[in-house]
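Submission checklist for the structure archive. All mandatory fields must be present; incomplete records are returned to the submitter.

[x] Identifier: TetR/AcrR family transcriptional regulator
[x] Organism: Saccharopolyspora elongata
[x] Residue count: 195
[x] Sequence attached
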Amino acid sequence: MSAVERLLSEDAPRADAQRNVRRLVVAAREAVADVGVGVTAHEIARRAGVGIGTFYRRVPSREALLQAVVEDTIYEIVGLARQALQDPDPWHGFCSFAAEFVQLRAMSCGINEALGTDCALTLDQPLADLREQIRLLVERCQQAGAVRGDVPWQDVPFALTSVMTGNRTIGLPAADDQWRRNLRIVLAGLRATTA
């Protein structure tokens, strides 16, 4: 059962209360993406179209809601990695995962914070699971001769994260698909020359 499902099932509230919890979860996901994990309960309630009293009646705390939302999102990334491991072509699977990983980080301020900094949420287990899946992906590619053998798997998350960019650098505007262009360069650098 996911963290959000556990939150939804607490005390099995009435149907209208369940709807409010779902609205709060959707609003929290959007707010985490737009604002980050520092988003306030008032902002989440406003986005959900409910009052702050309803917020605190329906969820244990702002932190519990954010924990559930961010944890579930990280487990979605873990699921993407597991799908990539099922691809018969290790390199294709890795590239597909890399694009989805970077896109999610680029689109969600809060997920970028949670994956990149010490945030106030307790994410030890989801992050450990994600690290393990990335290790498996990289090692599978290395065993297939698709990724350079001299690249430790621990360097790969940093390399993937490095493709995200700001809106400008040295006076040049970033293209709309700048992260995709950067990702192509990084993947070319990771690719084994014999592949």
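[x] Structure attached
Curator remark: The longest strand covers residues 168-169. The chain has a mean pLDDT of 87.
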